[in-house]
């Protein structure tokens, strides 16, 4: 698709150059970098990503050795009485014991734990896809807010220029009425159009104020001023220039499809975990216990020196499930149904992404066509205005013809400026739609701005 050459009118270029606030304007890349460090929604997504990064480490614990220490201390009193009640005790002594046991186990065969670990790894991949989607969303939100401000600035500029032109036409109509060359109708028509433009100026000024507030919110600063487009720009061509190629790229790149694929894999692993309920488990276990007896025990005689006992053991623990009340079978049926759901969700994600990609692609193509058409309309509207002014001066046109031509020209200028911004943002949205949008894509758009 060939490049479209877009030209600002000399009036717009002069008005843009006359605004001193643009001397300290911020580029799109600069605003995005500030928003990336400040935007609460993106920071929340980043924190969620950091939290999900530990999923694999948590799940790996089920494959590693487990160790525990148990310590206890007892104090006992032993009394032994003869059969005859009331007789003094034959044995009456106090003894105590202290013990500590270290237990260690190492899973040798636990299929459920292995599936759980695999799910933890997939959770990390899922977190990465979610962060990628959040970053793409931030790119679009910042770019949209950035160009919304520029569009509002252009709209206000053109309204002011139209007000000046209508004011000139009003003064001209008043002079002609005073000298008797025109009727009061021309003056009233010009006055009505002037009042209408004043209302449009108030609305445009308020719209610009609202758009600036929205942009400032992204970076946490006030009076963020975007850089305007250069006076002559070339829109970057769509590459590739076939919609099917954009759709094909989305299959491997789009975060939503990635998340749906990972969700399906996690669901399949959940079925493996459920099936592990029928499988045996095997663990290597070991323990070491140290016991100190003070003054004997309940089964030994009194001892004033006490004793120490140390016992160590190593073995394997084999467990095979026999019957769990059909709970395992029910769980397997549930996970198989969830697998089907995840598979259908993946297909739905693919279809939605393909549809969004096609819509965004044809939106950009249509926008580029609108830019070309509005450029031609701007030139035609300017010619029509010049002709009507000349016709009014020689008496073959009336004042309302000139006013209508002025309105048409400035409306076309506003539409053309808005169409340019829509094409630039639409190109970014197309890349978001097929999942290939990256921060580096802003550099292309940023190169079209006045430094």
Q: Can you describe what's shown?
A:
With 451 residues, the chain is of the alpha+beta class. It has a single domain, classed as Outer membrane efflux proteins (OEP) (Up-down Bundle), CATH 1.20.1600.10. The protein is built from 11 helices and 6 strands. The strands form 2 sheets. The chain has a 4-stranded antiparallel beta sheet, with no helix packed on it. A two-stranded antiparallel sheet has the order 1-4. Helix 5 runs antiparallel to helix 6, helix 5 runs antiparallel to helix 8 and helix 7 runs antiparallel to helix 9. The longest helix is centred in the N-terminal third of the chain and has 69 residues. The two termini are 27 Å apart.
Q: In terms of topology, how is this protein built?
A:
Blueprint: E1 5-7, H1 10-17, H2 28-38, H3 40-52, H4 55-60, E2 66-80, E3 91-109, H5 111-179, H6 184-219, E4 232-234, H7 243-253, H8 255-275, E5 281-294, E6 307-319, H9 327-394, H10 399-433, H11 441-446
Antiparallel strand pairs: 1-4, 2-3, 3-5, 5-6
Are there runs of 5+ residues with pLDDT below 50, and where?
Answer: 1-23
* Helix content percent band: 55-70%
Count of beta strands: 6
Could you report the average pLDDT, rounded to the nearest whole number? 87
Task: Write the element-wise H/E pattern from the N-terminal end onward.
Answer: EHHHHEEHHEHHEEHHH
Structural class: alpha+beta
Q: At the fourth CATH level, what is the homologous superfamily?
A: Outer membrane efflux proteins (OEP)
| CATH fold topology | Outer membrane efflux proteins (OEP)
Gross morphology: elongated
Report the sheet-strand fraction: 5-15%
**Biggest sheet architecture:** 4 strands, antiparallel
Looking across the biggest beta sheet, what order are the strands in? Answer: 2-3-5-6
Termini Cα gap: 27 Å
